[in-house]
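Thread: quick sanity check before group meeting

JM: Hey all, I'm pulling together slides for Thursday and realized we never actually wrote out the predicted structure for the chain we discussed last week. Dropping the sequence here so it's in one place. If anyone has concerns about the input, flag it before I start.
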Amino acid sequence: MFIFLLFYVWDTYRDFRDTQEYIRLSELTGTIANLDDVLTMAAKTAAGTGDLKWEKRYRSYEKELNDTISEAISLESKYSLGKSLLKVDDSNKELCEMTDKAFNLVRIGQLEAASYLLNNEDYENQKKLYRAGTDQITSAINSFIKERCEEYHFQSYVTLVFASIAIPFLLLSWISVSRMLRKHDTDHDRFQLKLMESEQRFRDLTENTSDWIWEINCQLQFTYTNPNVKDILGYTPEELIGKRIYDFMSEDEVPKMNEFAAALAKNPQPFHNLENKNIHKDGSLRILETSGIPIYCRDGTINGYRGIDRDITDRRQAEKALWQEQNLLNRITETSPIGITVLNRQGVIIYANNEAVSILGLPKEKLTHLSYDSPEWKITDFEGKEIPEDMLPFNVVRKNRKPILNFRHALLKNKDEKIFLSMNSAPLLDNDGNFDGMVSAIEEITEQVKAENEKELLIKKLQKALLDVRTLSGLLPICAKCKKVRDDKGYWSSVEKYIQKRSSVKFSHGFCPECFDKYCSKYFSNGKSPAEDDTDDDEF
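JM (edit): ok, ran it. Output follows.
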């Protein structure tokens, strides 16, 4: 009987030892499920916010999850519990691969693509396989523990029978079982502590982000919210719990959100970057960008949604102000009578307004891909001499970082029409003061140049004509009787008119002394004026 009792106690101890490892496996399974939730939330938060600090948090828990899965697989294999955790491991590898791709998209600013990758059907299917694997192993462990409990009850009964026969043996068994039970309680407490630590890590993750993380039930009532809602909407979490999402929206937003919620109720699926208007506690309007995923019960029924909100009010206001500024700038440039072009740092034209297109005679699609010194323009000065490369406006502005004004040059328009231009150019600098391009104002002065040339030519001709008149060189036909002069067109005119017309001379009429004595002295000698004297003098 003593040997039989010892064997029975030893078998009970072995069963308790196996139970301890099953409890360890249950603990590992719970940790696997919790770490998966933590990693999923970190990845989706990074995709939703673009903040790469979430990738660091993700990496800090990734190795722990892989080690936990490896340890759990070894225990599962040891007790021949199937291959549920191997399937979990396969799903985990697929999820890690998709998550790595999502982080790569976040690094290059493609947040929408990253969010889509973490919310698409393939990702959700892998999550379901992951959850199914953990559920299967949990179910197997629970069944084992239930069977063990039934065995323990039977063993306890047998032990009591033997104890009634042999008190010492009963005492020994009782001590062994008590120790094992205390060990079981200690392991259970350790498991609960690990579970609490995992929950605390998740809470730290949600409460230390700058975004608003929430959960709602199927009645669209808030069941959880992190404290950051106060920074975004001014409410404490306690003020939101139990309230519906519509209680914090503007009236014009409710119909749109009601329609959206109805569609999700019929076809639950993840959504991302949904813009919606909410009312802050102080009455101001806030624009939020919302992403969410459905929450399922173990039986597969929808239990609500979990999501994240970002306040994009300032961004939208900045975008609106920028759009207004750009629209005003576009209106100014497109209606400007001056041609305007913008060159990038390589000297390629990236913008040209309508007047620039008209001046240069090229379609905008072609013009905005040409270099400033394109050979087809054949840039020269006004005299037709080629301008050195280092003297062209782009190179001068890039070198000196200063504007240049009234740079005059000529180029070929449409390959055969020579036009003259005046250009004012200024550098475009980045935030560090480095050269980032050039903007130019272009004015066609072809007609002005032609007018100036014609004016100079005319002035030269006039100056030559005046010089010729003033010198009165050459033969000048004059009438021998009346003394009229014939001009180069064959017309006769008085000498005075001829000279006045061709010089700056002005005539004043009077009498020389001889003519005065001949024609005027007799009038002054008798005291009569020529009008009172009726003496005929044909010669006068």
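AS: nice. The domain at 212-317 is CATH 3.30.450.20 (Beta-Lactamase). The CA atoms of residues 268 and 294 lie 7 Å apart.
JM: adding both to the slides.
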